């Protein structure tokens, strides 16, 4: 059968398409519907239709509180759709442990470690090639940011980061690994996740390679920790910190750091694979 395999399960590729398709539709509607409503209100106030649409787009896309609200809803829908896939499509019982969101004694430590890794990566992007002037860094934070904007960005990127990690790493990667093995499953998920960014802008070969390295490293970290809290906070910081500081490293520097990060993570993984596998089995029991 095309849609189902020999055991009667919906094939993974179709579950992935359901996941990505529903999230994409929801992301579009969350922005399209408010724009239409706001534009109509502006037209009712006497504004021309074309001007009203442009003004509505500016409000929805440029005002932080709108972005935070819409991204929070979008992040929650990643979780809702994954629960739907597990319960209704796969017909299995859902548990927080199955998607790496069970709270353990080690979770606070894992969150701290994730914060450290995310911050170290961003600092490496900034300073590996002296791309940031220290005297201007504080000025960038104070002048270009305010507390409300920073808090809204925190909410936005935490929900988006965690949502994407639930969908790609906790749900999809876990199932690809069961079908094709650990490294191939992590690689395949990283490639798909990197390619998904081409929806927003074209990527060069170097950017694709760098992205795959970064997301393979994050995929390995999820496989080792079985914790969305760990990779979710790293993912959120990698998106958040450039917005807060309004500075980023040069492209080449980012790529170098991503490749080095991947080499370090996979070296640890391969060096301690047997012990890591034992810990994963223990966590799942």
Written account of the structure:
With 285 residues, the protein is mainly α. It has 2 domains: 1-94, no CATH class; 98-285, no CATH class. 79% of the residues lie in helices and 0% in strands. The chain has 11 helices and no strands. The chain has helices at residues 12-44, 49-62, 64-89, 107-127, 134-144, 147-180, 182-196, 205-225, 228-245, 251-271, 273-284. Helix 1 runs antiparallel to helix 3 (64-89). The chain is globular, with a radius of gyration of 21 Å. It starts with 11 loop residues before the first helix and ends with a helix.
What is the terminal separation in angstroms?
34 Å
Q: What is the overall silhouette?
A: globular
**Largest beta-sheet details:** none
Helix/sheet category: mainly alpha
* Helix content percent band: over 70%
Rg (C-alpha, Å): 21 Å
User: What would the average pLDDT be, to the nearest integer?
Assistant: 84
Summed up, the domain count is 2
Fraction of residues in β-strands: under 5%
Q: How many helices?
A: 11
- Give the topology string: H per helix, E per strand: HHHHHHHHHHH
Number of strands: 0
Stretches where pLDDT is under 50 for at least 5 consecutive residues are: 132-143
């Amino acid at each position: 059968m095309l849609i189902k395999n020999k055991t009667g399960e919906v094939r993974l590729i179709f579950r992935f398409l359901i996941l990505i398709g529903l999230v994409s539709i929801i992301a579009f509607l969350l922005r399209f519907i408010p724009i239409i409503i706001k534009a109509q209100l502006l037209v009712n106030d006497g504004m021309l239709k074309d001007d009203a649409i442009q003004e509505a787009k500016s409000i929805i896309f440029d005002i932080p509180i709108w972005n935070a609200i819409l991204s929070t809803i979008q992040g929650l829908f990643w979780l809702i759709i994954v629960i739907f896939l597990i319960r209704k499509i796969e017909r299995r019982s859902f548990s927080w442990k199955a998607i790496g969101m069970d709270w353990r004694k080690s979770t606070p430590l894992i969150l701290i470690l994730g914060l450290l890794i995310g911050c170290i990566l961003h600092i490496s992007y900034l300073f590996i090639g002296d791309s940031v002037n220290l005297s201007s860094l504080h000025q960038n934070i104070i002048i270009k940011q305010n507390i409300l904007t920073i808090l809204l960005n925190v909410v936005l990127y935490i929900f988006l980061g965690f949502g994407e990690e639930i969908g790609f790493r906790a749900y999809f990667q876990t199932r690809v690994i069961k079908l094709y093995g650990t490294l191939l499953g992590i690689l395949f998920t990283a490639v798909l996740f990197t390619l998904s960014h081409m929806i927003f802008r074209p990527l060069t070969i170097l950017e694709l390679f760098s992205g795959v390295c970064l997301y393979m490293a994050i995929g390995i970290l999820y496989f080792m920790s079985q914790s969305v809290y760990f990779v979710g906070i790293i993912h959120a910081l990698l998106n958040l910190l450039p917005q807060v500081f309004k500075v980023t490293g040069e492209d080449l520097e980012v790529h170098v750091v991503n490749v080095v990060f991947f080499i370090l993570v996979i070296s640890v993984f391969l060096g301690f694979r047997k012990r890591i596998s034992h810990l994963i089995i223990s966590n799942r029991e």
